[in-house]
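Thread: quick sanity check before group meeting

JM: Hey all, I'm pulling together slides for Thursday and realized we never actually wrote out the predicted structure for the chain we discussed last week. Dropping the sequence here so it's in one place. If anyone has concerns about the input, flag it before I start.
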Amino acid sequence: MGQELTPWAVLSRQLPQTASGREIAGADWSRTSLGPTDEWPQSLATLLAAGLACPSPMLLGWGPDLLIFFNDACVALMGKRTVGAIGRPVQDLLHDVWNDVGPMVEAALAGEIRISVDLPLNMQARGDDADSWWSCTASPVRDEEGDIAGFLIMAIDTTWRVVAQRSRDDAAKRLQVALSAGDSIGAWDWDVLQNRVTADSRFALIYNVEPERADAGVKMEEFFDAIHPDDKPRVEAEVSQAIEKREGFFSEYRILSSSGEEQWIAAQGRPVYDDDGRCIRFPGLSFDITANKRAERARVSGPSSRKA
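JM (edit): ok, ran it. Output follows.
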């Protein structure tokens, strides 16, 4: 019979495979409340083995001092905050966001599971002070005796989704302002399967399409050709996203007239689907918000930038 491996000996084979694992292996744990690694409990070694291999961000606090462990996915999201943090108390790592994270940790230590969606935290993952939003789950972890020995947080960075939603909400508000002001341009109806757009005359003229042809129907590409080259790829992507995710379409972009003059447009639409789930139509409205944009620029620049 071979000598039975300790839990740490089993885990140590996995540690060199990740950057976080190598940092754990290189730390002097004998100076901490956890003691030498070969004395660590099986429960901790098992959690670490699973966490280090997990593709999702994982943050583990263990022991009387709640010493921190995390995986490489967590490093990718939390950035410079994690430098030298493994083996330190959790509050050292999250001291500036403890008012938000602390209640979740305390609940987990009391045996509860806490879920927080789109929690606003400045984690400085991008190396600056940009706002970020996170969805987190905090749960208790137990030792061999079944006692709570720490907590486990699984987190997802949802900043992109929150920012996108806020942008859509802002666009919708500006669209309502334009609608209230009577700045309507016109309406369109896109037959997606046939790729034919019919539109009223005012809409058609803004997009440099002859009204008679727009009334009969032309390809969507003819209308997109009028969009400013710097905005066109984004608008095309937003239309595709609305169809793919079955959500409302809101966008603001510039149109170039036949003379090269820029006009700002706010557009709103919603895809329509058949029983087979195919997008068959995409009707919508567009509004001229050029005056609104000019007013915004004037407010931002202020009186000091205008000539006396």
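AS: nice. The chain has two domains: 7-157, 161-299. The mean pLDDT is 81.
JM: adding both to the slides.
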